[in-house]
Write a structure and sequence with these properties.
The chain has 338 residues and is of the alpha/beta class. The chain is 31% helix and 17% strand. Strands 7-8-9-6-5-4-3-2-1-10-11-12 form a twelve-stranded mixed β-sheet. Helix 6 links the parallel strand 5 and strand 6. The chain is globular, with a radius of gyration of 19 Å. The two termini are 29 Å apart. The structure holds S-adenosylmethionine and iron/sulfur cluster.
């Protein structure tokens, strides 16, 4: 099998696929600051059949994990049938999803039956009003129900993604940690990334490093101890409270990047391969694929494999966000899938 190994010896086993750039929420750190959305035209969105073709070729090159993201992946019509088909792709061991959780209470059962293994759910506040301020939507209670349903359905480990926003939710860290006492949740605090100039301006001063938060927690809970996370727990470092069922951790993409361990590439909703989230270089896979007739299955597969290889070989050694350089990237997370 031809493996996907980049120029720095990292083997790529993980493909993150954005199913759509649309979303039912308008998170302040993700949507365009001026709220003017430039959605991708419907016909420019990668079709499910095309994603399946790409997934098959990628699995033949050693990709074992696929995470579905967006935008909000659960707003895309047909997502359950798509996952059923994706779970039949030979070689894939783990299919997961990052979701805002709003539709999980009604969809978790079908998702599990279709073959989804686990979910990450974004939740930035446990306070109803603050939740609305951050997401633009009064959806906290429904998301909490979604989390319960995900646990009941066994979409585990259920991870909760909390983007740290100074002055907005950093006072809630303790409440989030307390969730891990009774529930087997992995709560992950994520450093805010200013991925474009507008975000930098509108969220000036919102960044708070995970280190500061960890120091605060350790002052309050000196018994918290670091734990080795299980398989599938990604780039976070984890801690546990004594007797806690769950754990909490930090994703320090800015203050202490984990690029040397990076094992992923991304496929955007419009069908580009993106070697690094925090670098705007993309390769136009859908464009190439649509030049080849459907009947030429082997030719199509060769084209996908060749672009996957090129994308992996062009992965930068690390990103430069947070280096002090200006305008390192220019994108909204909802376009690419965080
Ligand atoms: N809609 C889904 C959700 O919210 O989970 C999936 C897409 S969302 C873009 C994926 C993840 O990216 C979420 O956990 C979100 O919190 C995170 N994210 C979005 N914008 C971010 C930013 N500027 N900095 C850090 N994380 C961000
Ligand atoms: Fe939507 Fe997720 Fe972005 Fe929030 S973070 S606007 S839920 S895509």
């Amino acid at each position: 099998m031809e493996k996907l190994i980049d120029s720095y010896g990292r083997q790529i086993r993980y493909l993150r696929v954005s199913l759509t750039d649309r979303c039912n929420f308008r998170c302040i750190y993700c949507s365009p600051a001026d709220k003017v959305f430039h959605f991708i035209e419907h016909e420019e969105i990668l079709r499910f059949e095309e994603i399946l073709e790409i997934a098959q070729a990628a699995a033949e090159m050693g990709i074992t994990k696929i995470r579905l993201t967006g935008g909000e992946p659960l707003v895309r019509k047909g997502v359950i049938d798509f996952i059923s088909q994706l779970s039949q792709v030979n070689g894939l061991e783990d299919i997961s999803m990052t979701t805002n959780g709003y539709y999980l209470s009604e969809m978790a059962h079908s998702l599990r039956s279709a073959g989804l293994n686990r979910v990450n759910i974004s939740l930035d506040s446990l306070d109803r009003r603050k939740f609305k301020r951050i997401t633009g939507f009064d959806g906290l209670l429904k998301v909490l129900r979604g989390i319960e349903t995900a646990l009941q359905e066994g979409l585990i480990p259920v991870k909760i993604n909390v983007v740290l926003l100074k002055g907005i939710n950093d006072d809630e860290v303790e409440n989030f940690i307390k969730l891990t006492i009774d529930k087997p949740l992995a709560v992950r605090f994520i450093e805010f990334m200013s991925t474009n100039r507008q975000l930098q301006e509108t969220n000036e001063g919102r960044f708070i490093s995970a280190k500061v938060i960890l120091e605060r927690i350790m002052d309050k809970y000196p018994d918290a101890h670091s734990v080795t996370a299980e398989k599938g727990c990604g780039p976070a470092s984890y801690y546990q409270l004594p007797g806690g069922q769950g754990m909490f951790g930090f994703i320090t993409a800015i203050s202490q990047h984990f690029c040397s361990r990076c094992n992923r590439i991304r496929l955007t909703a419009e069908g580009n391969l993106r070697p690094c989230l925090l670098n705007d270089r993309e390769l136009e896979l859908k464009k190439r694929l649509r030049e080849i007739p459907q009947s030429q299955t082997e030719l199509r597969k060769d084209a996908i494999k060749s672009l996957l290889k090129e994308a992996v070989l062009s992965k930068p050694i690390s990103h430069r966000l947070g280096s002090g350089e200006k305008d390192v990237t220019n994108f909204d997370m909802s376009q690419i899938g965080g």
